[in-house]
Structure formats: structure tokens, C-alpha cells
């Protein structure tokens, strides 16, 4: 496609309109372009730029140009989490922090980010809390129906396929980044699932805003054949690294150990940030505070219904 095709047509009100498109020499057809004439001209100028090797920043320049011309860029939601997982000699260990944020506000200090999928499969969620809970609950119910139908334990690859197909269909607009782990008849499995549906299969994985800090711990200290205690210690250290180096992660450390035929959920396994001072008296208003008005609104009232008149004949 190296030539521009231009054609003048008569508009509905008799005005002359200019249709612009790219002429495909192979198909001998004109591919129309839609938008304002100024955008067409700018696109034509961009097409004159010779192609280079490496990463192309054309779209970045285009976005900056559109923002300067008054286009409102789509907003995004800043989320924070550190979730990790690794494979040890007997199974899989998952870990997560417990901080939930609403922008700069800590909404929940002790939320659960390790979600139940099946008796032998669990999933850590990063991103929007509502999305991660809804997606994992939906797939968990589908796995339960599959177990009822087949009479067999769920496989990790089944959960992975259901999750990635659902997320891919929404093209990343469902903000759920997941670390899926479990042990089935084929052995231990660990996968990462990105919000747009891309997946990885790894011996150790991290996701969330604190993933870089956690990954630095894994890359330095992970080795094959870890024991249960060594794996738990390494996962806790990776989560703590995310907690202390990422503002979006914090509070406590949750760990889930999955082995063949057994799982162990260690809720609040570690509390690296304990509250140093807690007032025993709590908060009370001063005695000088003047009460301006007192109003009691009953939430429920008893209503008596009295039937008047005779019943209607059938």
C-alpha cells in the first residue's frame, strides 16, 4: 500500500466532499479512511516517515498530538498489590499482601487476595478487587459444575483456559491480573494470567505493582527442589519486599500451601507492620459538646391491617 487514492463525490446538499483512502496495488482496490481531513493529512505525513528497526514511537507521538489538540485521554485506575507463587518439591505455594486501596486511601488493611477455585486450585488476584473476585467466583462455579458432571477433580489447565478465554474476550478492560496455582493428577502447576488474556507457565511468578521487588528476591534465592519450610520462607520474604518497596502493597502476609490431596491456608502468616499503639479508651466526644437536636427514626414499624367489608363472592 504505497499510493493515496482520492475521489471527489457529490454530497447530499450538493457540496463537494473529498474521500481519501489507501490504494492497494495487490488487490487493485481503495481502502477508505475515516476521520477529519486534518487527521488524513497527518496520517499521510506519518506514512512518509521511513520505517526503522526497533520500537516504533509513532503512536506515542500521535497520542501527544491529540492531547495537545484538546482530546481528553481515557482515565485509568491506580491499583496496588503484591502476589507471588512458586513450585516446591511437593506442590505449589501462593502468597499475597492484604492491603486494598482506593487511590491514596487504604480501604481495607486485611483483605483476602488468595481466592478459592477448587479444593486443589487457588488463585491470587491483583487489580480491581471487584473484578478479581467476580472472575474467580465465576470460574470457580464452572469448575464445580464440571466436577459434578465428570466426577473427577478439576485440573489446573481447565481453570487456566476458562480464565484466559473470559479475560481475552474483554481485551483487558476487566482489571484482573492473576497468579493461578494448584496440584492435579499431572502434578503441580503455576501460571500467570494478564488482564488481556496472555498467560505464562513458570516455576516462580509475581504480579502486581510490587512484582518487581518480589521478583528480585525470587531471582536471587529461588532454586529447584525447595522444601516446604524453605518455600514458605522465600514467599514471605518476597511479599515483604513488595510491602516495604511499594506504596500500593502493605499490611500482612497471607500464604497458601497446596500439595497433592491437601491444602493449608495460612491467614496472616506474618504481620510485618504491627500497630505499635492502640488506645484502650477509644474515641469519645468532649463533655463540652452541645447536643443541638436528637431524632430517632424507627427502621421498622408494626402495621396492623384490618379487613373491612364482606368477602367477594366467587
Can I get a quick summary?
This protein is an alpha+beta fold and 314 residues long. 28% of the residues lie in helices and 29% in strands.
Extract low-pLDDT stretches.
Answer: 1-18, 33-41
> What's the rounded overall pLDDT mean?
85
Q: How big is the Rg?
A: 29 Å
Strands, total number: 15
% residues in beta strands: 25-35%
User: What can be said about the biggest beta sheet?
Assistant: 5 strands, antiparallel
Helix/strand-derived category reads alpha+beta
SSE succession: EEEHHEEEEEEHHEEEEHHEE
Number of helices: 6
Helix content: 25-40%
Main sheet: strand order: 13-4-5-14-15
Task: Write down the overall geometry.
Answer: extended
Distance between the termini: 81 Å
Question: How would you describe this structure to a colleague?
Answer:
It is found in: Cytoplasm; Nucleus. It holds the Pfam family Proteasome. With 314 residues, the protein is of the alpha+beta class. Strand 14 and strand 15 form a beta hairpin. The N and C termini lie far apart (81 Å). The N terminus is likely disordered.
